[in-house]
Design brief:
There is one protein chain. An eleven-stranded parallel β-sheet has the order 2-4-6-8-9-11-13-15-17-19-21, covered by helices on one side. A three-stranded parallel β-sheet has the order 10-12-14, with no helix packed on it. A three-stranded parallel β-sheet has the order 20-24-25, covered by helices on one side. With 381 residues, the chain is mainly beta. It is elongated and about 140 Å long. Helices cover 8% and strands 18% of the residues.
């Protein structure tokens, strides 16, 4: 039983703090961790409700799952540059934590990592982080701003759900997917710019963001999930890119009354291109659609257009000269006419009677092997 332990200094000989090592030490206020320690195990300080601050040395590279979970008095913590991952639920329910600096060395933030850190006011996720886990900042009701770094490729489900004070969000340029419920119930969020890198917006992603007035969808978005912008009562219009091929049911312009009756936002306008999912969704749901014209696929400037090779003349090579005094054997003289055309011999007659008589004569010539030639030189058979 360590419930009466108030402080401890870990000796230099220790290289790791094991799982649940100080779990339930509810009176522990001060702990000194030496540079020899490289890892803090799962639930190592779980429930140390009197612990107010922790300095983690640079030697530590990983913070285990639930390592500081339920440290309700923890107001500040220093995460060193050597840390590469923050485990699931590492700071879950640290309700006194007002700020945390995540170093560039961190590449992943686990599920529930900062969930219910109700005093956390701002968070900047560095470019080194590639993924934000599910529920990572869920219920951080004091959080007013969040910057998602340019290294992040996915924002997990429920990542910022219920961050009711969150008014400013910057989404990095490499994010490809926004998970289900990622920003649902962020009731202070007024605008959001979704970069071109994002291809999918999950179900309920911005559900019930009642203050949301402006949404900019990147050109890379191809699908908008079920009820993605449902309950965004301040949103009056949206521009939907041509590449969007799927808009799920009730994704845009829908709300619900207190009696759970669905209704459309009055006067809602969808701007989009003709013969696209935007127009189909608007028509199917009775929403005003304003056309931006026919979509024309942009030309990639890095791809060369096909060209027709034109023969070129080398100025250093002499063109062949034709001697006008020498006849060209390949060219017919147009002045020469066919002698058969001017011949008056009866074999060339156009009379059907004469031609019939002539055929009989040629028949006998052929039997007796007689070769006859006309005056013009044409063979008679």
């Amino acid at each position: 039983d360590c419930s009466s332990l108030t402080s401890i200094t870990i000796p230099d000989s220790v290289t790791s703090i094991g799982g649940s090592a100080f779990r339930g030490c509810s009176s522990l206020k001060l702990i000194t961790i030496p540079d020899s320690v490289t890892s803090i195990g799962a639930a190592a300080f779980y429930g140390c409700s009197s612990l107010t601050s922790v300095a983690i040395p640079d030697s530590v590279t990983s913070i285990g799952a639930s390592a500081f979970c339920d440290c309700t008095s923890l107001a500040s913590i220093t995460i060193p540059d050597g840390i590469t991952s923050i485990g699931n639920g590492a700071f879950y329910d640290c309700i006194s934590l007002t700020g945390v600096t995540i170093p560039d060395s961190v590449n992943s933030i686990g599920d529930y990592a900062f969930q219910k850190c109700t005093s956390l006011k701002s968070i900047t996720i560095p470019d080194g982080v590639t993924s934000i886990g599910a529920h990572a900042f869920d219920g951080c009701i004091a959080l007013t701003s969040a910057v998602v770094g340019n290294g992040v490729t996915s924002i997990g489900k429920y990542a910022f759900q219920g961050c009711t004070a969150l008014a400013n969000v910057t989404i990095g340029s490499k994010v490809s997917s926004i998970g289900d419920y990622a920003f649902s119930d962020c009731s202070a969020l007024k605008s959001i710019v979704i970069p071109d890198s994002v291809t999918s917006i999950g179900d309920y992603a911005f559900y019930n963001c009642k203050a949301l007035k402006s949404v900019t969808l990147g050109t890379g978005v191809t699908s908008i999930g079920y009820r993605a912008f449902f309950g965004c009562t301040s949103l009056a219009s949206i521009i939907i890119p041509a590449n969007v091929t799927v808009i799920d049911n009730y994704a845009i312009a829908y709300n619900v009354t207190t009696n759970y009756v669905l209704y459309l936002t009055d006067g809602f306008i969808i701007y989009g291109y003709e013969d696209t999912a935007a127009q189909t969704y608007a028509n199917d749901n009775g929403i005003t659609f304003i056309s931006l014209g026919e979509y024309v696929e942009p030309v990639d400037p890095d791809v060369d257009e096909p060209t027709t090779d034109e023969p070129t003349t080398d100025p250093d090579v002499d063109e062949p000269v034709t001697d006008p005094s020498v006849d060209d054997p390949t060219t017919d003289d147009p002045s020469e006419e066919d002698p058969a055309e001017s011949c008056s011999h009866f074999c060339h007659s156009e009379s059907s009677f004469i031609q019939f008589f002539y055929k009989i004569i040629r028949f006998f010539w052929k039997i007796f092997g007689i070769n006859q030639y006309c005056e013009c030189g044409a063979a008679h058979y």
